[in-house]
């Protein structure tokens, strides 16, 4: 691992990381609070009431791209070879697949399900909707798990590095573990998922926003 210099100023990749990271909660606030992959009918009702499904997901995808690519570039400045970058790139690819499904597949299914006058036809489409929704939500949990695993690896890789505060490095791996535990808990206890995700994902998320200032 190369010697790490003391942080001086916020670089371009750091600015991209911060911009993308701050866009994510904005997009999330306008997304229906869906946390149970197996509650397809509840999701159908919530998504049908969503005011701007396409815009929210485009904003979310744009924020994710800036955030994860920015983090990857930041890591490569302090860690050679990078430990977390491969995971962050895989997570971004997974998110793209999920967003394509939510933008290109779910809206037509939603239209068909909400306009079908034939109950038999609606019943035949409901399993397809349930499957797509379960895939999207579970895939999102897995993708975020890779992001938090990357936070763990990045912080562990740089432990003991010169000119880096120990509290920040330990915060990284501890909060990453916390984030992964929260994702597992959200799948196991979906009715408590909102609180679990908020409490356990906030620490590693904030770590990624502090990361650019450590370059």
TrEMBL record:
Domain of life: Bacteria
Keywords, comma-separated and alphabetical: Membrane, Transmembrane, Transmembrane helix
Bilayer-crossing regions: 12-31, 51-71, 83-111, 131-156, 168-188, 194-213
Coiled-coil blocks: none
Protein's recorded name: DUF4386 domain-containing protein
Native source organism of the sequence: Bacillus thermozeamaize
